[in-house]
Structure formats: C-alpha cells, structure tokens
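hiii, so i know i said id send this last week but things got crazy w the move. better late than never?? heres the sequnce for the chain we talked about at the cafe, plus the structure i predicted for it. fair warning i was half asleep when i ran it
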Amino acid sequence: MSIAAESVSISPVSLGEEKSGTKKLVLKLFNGAIAGVVGTLIIYPLDMVKTRLQNQKMDASGNFRYKGGVHCFKSIIQAEGARGLYRGLVPNLIGITPEKAIKLAVNDYAREYLAKTKNVDPEHLPIHLGMVAGATAGFCQVIATNPMEIVKIQMQVAGAELKPGQPRPTALQVVQKLGLKGMYKGTPATLLRDVPFSILFFPSHAYLKTLCADSNGNVSFPAVFGSGIVAGIFAAGAVTPADVVKTRLQVAAKPGEPVYRGFAHCFKEIVRNEGPSALFKGVVPRCMIVSPLFGFALLTYEAQQRYLKL
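okay and structure toks below
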C-alpha cells in the first residue's frame, strides 16, 4: 500500500493504556530523535547557506560577500567543494538527536497531559493550552539546542574564513576552545527564538491537521507533511530576527568587528548599523530549512507513533 493511502488516527489515547507513562515518554523521545536525524540529513545544505547569509557583514566598500542564497550556495561549492555544504553536520546530528527528541516528545506528552486534565482529544486542545505545551517544549530543548548550534555555526563560518591549504577546525577543537560556559553562549537568544517558535508552530500544526481530518478524525500522511510545511514557514519567518541575533552572538568576533554585550545590545547594533531589514537576513533559506525539516520530522514521528501504537 502506498504511503499516500495510509492515514494517521488522531483519536485520543489514555496515558494509562497498554504502556506506562514513563515508557511511553521514552518511546516518544526515541521516535523524536529518529525524526530529527531524518529531517536534518535532507535539509542541511540549506542550513549552511542560511548561516553564511546571516553572519555576513558589509566590507569597506559597503558590499556583502554573497548576493543571495543561490550565489552563496554556488560560492561555497566553488571555494570549498560539495563537502563544504555539510561542514558541521556531525556535531549537528549529535545535537539534533536529543534536541528533536525533547522538542517533539515533550510537546506531544504535554498536549496529552493537558488534554487529559480537560477530558478532551489532544488534537482539539484549546489553543492557549496548545501554546503552553509548545512553550514547555521550546524551553526544555534549549539544554541540547544551544551547544549543538554554537558548534555547528562556528564550523560553518570557519570554512568561509580559511585560506587555501589551511587546516579546518574539527568539532572537538571547537568544543575544547569554547569550554562548558562557551557552549551556552547566546542561550537567552536561543530561548527567545525557540520558545516563541514552538508557541506558534505546534498549535498551528495541530489546527491545520484538524482541518485536513476526514469524518472519522483521520489525517493522511501527505496532510501531516503539508501541515508541518505551512506551520514551519509561518513560525520560522516570525522568529527570524531572534535567529539572526543568536547567530551573531554565537560567532566569534574577529579583530575590528563589534563585540556584542547581549541580546538587546546586538539587536540595537544591527538595526543602527545595517537597518531593520538586516534582522530578516536569511529568512528565505531559514523558512526553506525549517519547514521541510519539521515536515519530514513530523511525518517520520507520526508514522512511528502510528505503527508503535503510542
């Protein structure tokens, strides 16, 4: 049977049925980890382009190195080869496993818990409670997100600064240089990006799925994927300014470049020196990254949920 013909039931599941709450949460975490890896492998080159675009600053002539996403993509291949598009992939995969596991599983578990307290279907949870569940997931994931992203970003940016023949830093070298404290540099900015993202994304995704449900409450796999795409574009675009600030804070400043004292200072300096539009640098590749990432991740996650009967 083709995947398009399959459907995902959205009927409520009691936390006491068949599996204990703890075992069920562990399985959800495992499913979320697999879903995150699948999505990341598919969209990583776009993430590289997004990071390079967000970090670039005007040169002495008032010009940017990259003219846009396509030019950036071609420039990376010309200067660094196809492998350059996957720089920082390994630490990203190591980090994305717990990050997506926490994000997807905590949101799912929180929705089921809140739905149980209100005696409603988790897929028809009131929007304000859906936002609470999303915020909880966004807050919890940062413990894994921040270290993963700062290592990934520093490796992605390093490729643009190296001279021919110069050795490229490894993930271990970046981790050793940063230290434990450095791994959590920019955490407030990560929270200000991920919590609002989850507040917007998960309730939107749940609402869109209900619109696609048939008379029996079933949602097809293509509808799950499409709902993730649309919700991802909406949420990713909305929090792009926080993502730009986070990227600037987590990239090591070179001599002569501004040193930012925190989120508010970085935000003000970007607007003052580059204009408000700079806060949306990389918004197109970011949306092109996040929407299919969550589309594929949620499709994988819900398929596992269905076949494991969670």
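btw The longest helix spans residues 21-55. thought thatd interest u
miss u guys!!
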